[in-house]
Specification:
The chain is of the alpha/beta class and 271 residues long. It is elongated and about 65 Å long. Helix content is 44%, strand content 13%. The mean pLDDT is 91. It has two domains: 33 residues; 233 residues, no CATH class. Strands 1, 2, 3, 4, 5 and 6 form a six-stranded mixed sheet that branches. A hairpin with a 5-residue loop joins strand 2 and strand 3. It contains ten helices and six strands.
């Protein structure tokens, strides 16, 4: 704040007030720019995943990341400490293959796992309002697998030829949208190390508003084809997966069957 104040010859307080007003104005647009796709739009997204990669019903990917904090929070600092030995805020992003953010879940400190945050996301709590029959997201091994979130096999089960091929193809599709938050950080360098002190709930809410504004502006840039930004490295969130939902295995088996058939038909299956 002081550096900006000196450049423009105003007080740090004025810079702070202008920043708050700007962030508030941007976030009023969040319902316009961060929108869960309509049924017809989800159908379009699913066509891409099916025709290019063999995933039937895939409308996007979900991924957790961390926004590192420059300063240790003054309230219960241990809850902000993540597995990368940094203080941070957790963010869970759902994005499509156009790298648009279609849902963002905030409000958790860096020690929270992807699976924990996933359970609080609106799309996970109210799947009937967000998914049509057969639609799902792709996730990594840290997610809670359900009939709406499909990820790779892990441990010994992941070592079979079929399951390795499935994981490889899943990663090829996921990486398209997995880069989304890296691009957000590439556009808004403040998210590489957020220099906002957190000493109260009000401070925490201000930090969340800052992060949300960056997500909104990312989609605004995408809407006017302002591309050309390389993804910045991101910190994965804690990987403490919950036991899979009872219906998850049937869903993953169905998806895998389609994917393996697609890979063999297109000659990319690795025996």
């Amino acid at each position: 704040m002081n550096a900006v104040a000196n450049i423009f010859g105003v007080s740090a307080g004025s810079v702070s007030n202008c920043t708050k007003r700007f962030i508030a104005a941007v976030n009023k647009l969040s319902d316009r720019y961060i929108v869960w796709p309509s049924e017809s739009k989800r159908a379009e997204l699913a066509v891409f995943a099916w025709e290019r990669f063999g995933f039937r019903g895939c409308i996007g990917s979900v991924d957790g990341s961390q926004v590192p904090l420059a300063y240790a929070p003054r309230v219960q600092p241990w809850t902000w400490w993540n597995r990368h030995d940094r203080y941070s805020i957790h963010i869970l992003v759902v994005s499509d293959h156009n790298r648009n953010i279609i849902a963002v879940t905030l409000g958790f400190s860096g020690s929270a796992s992807d699976a924990m945050v996933q359970q609080q996301a609106d799309w996970a709590r109210f799947p009937g309002e967000h998914f049509s029959l057969g639609e799902m997201l792709l996730g990594d091994k840290g997610m809670h697998y359900t009939d709406r979130v499909v990820g790779p096999y892990i441990g010994q089960r992941g070592q079979t030829t079929t399951n390795r091929n499935f994981a490889w193809q899943l990663a090829r599709l996921r990486v398209i949208s997995e880069h989304t938050f890296g691009i957000v950080k590439g556009r808004w360098a403040s998210l590489k190390e957020l220099r906002l002190p957190i000493g109260s709930e009000e401070d925490f809410l201000a930090a969340l508003e800052w992060i949300l504004a960056c997500c909104v502006l990312h989609n605004v840039c995408n809407s006017v084809n302002d591309g050309g930004v390389e993804p910045s490295p991101t910190l994965d969130a804690a990987q403490e997966p919950l036991p899979a939902h009872p219906s998850a295995e049937a869903t993953r088996s169905r998806v895998k069957r389609d994917v393996i058939a697609f890979m063999k038909a297109t000659g990319v299956y690795k025996y």
